[in-house]
Amino acid sequence: MKIHHMNCGTLCPLGERWVKGDGGLGSTDIVCHSLLIEAGDQLVLVETGFGTEDAQHPYKRLGVRFNLGLRPKPRAHETAFERIKAMGLDPADVGHITVTHLDLDHAGGLPDFPGADVHVFGPEQRAALNPTLRERPRYRPTHFAHGPKWVPYEAGGDDWFGFGSVRVMEGVDADIALIPLEGHSRGHCAVAVRDGEGWLLHSGDAYFNHNEMAIPPSCPPALKVFQTAMAADNAKRKANAERLRELQRDHGDEITIFCAHDPHDLAAFG
């Protein structure tokens, strides 16, 4: 099994000092960290980032509010579809996709892989397809209009280092599990992938900056405000971030924890 780490979308919010913790007041780059897993003769995608149509029509596909606030720069060559082609692989071989949640910057590429099974936590699928008024800006109906081949899962399953987990993709030559970490969204999960003798834990938007996994934690002020504002349940979000810190402290030699948008985390994988 081979795992590739990719940036499948760039966001350029203003206020580098407040987003990164240093620098000036100009824009800074935030990534959309995705994984491509070569598992036998199948390709598995963890997070899609932005899609090819998002790159062509960013305001229409992503909405004015998102564009003005986070200043996304969806580029065709950064999409999962084009990155897979650049590796000499066929995007049509992506048979399975799983996501931490279905926000527009995590699931925008779903239409590029219409034949793939989309493995998702059931509460998140229900939130995305039937959003409340407050949730509507985060889920874009255009990303689901092609009729994804949903494979929803409910809570329950095995214990994973003290967390509940749901094993997904039975029959695929990869050990992958959804780890419910609700808070940022109604059905937010982490995605655990066994990598040799250890594990990778893609924590999605459970936190936004690598310093949040330190004890004591710290977070740049703009990200702290953003996380609180975007949380479906901020108390759950904060509690799950604390659980991740404890996991890092107790099992850091067995598990590599990273989040979706921190360039530091992506750079750590080369």
Q: What does this protein look like?
A:
This protein has 270 residues and is of the alpha/beta class. It has one domain (2-267): Ribonuclease Z/Hydroxyacylglutathione hydrolase-like (Metallo-beta-lactamase, Chain A). Helix content is 27%, strand content 26%. The chain is built from ten helices and twelve strands. It has helices at residues 16-20, 52-56, 58-62, 64-70, 80-86, 104-107, 122-129, 221-230, 234-251, 263-267, and strands spanning 2-11, 30-39, 42-46, 94-98, 117-121, 149-153, 158-160, 163-168, 176-180, 189-195, 198-202, 255-258. The strands form two sheets. Strands 1-2-3-4-5-6 form a six-stranded mixed sheet. A six-stranded mixed sheet has the order 7-8-9-10-11-12, with helices on one face. The longest helix is centred in the last third of the chain and has 18 residues, at 234-251. It is globular and about 45 Å long. The protein starts with a strand and ends with a helix.
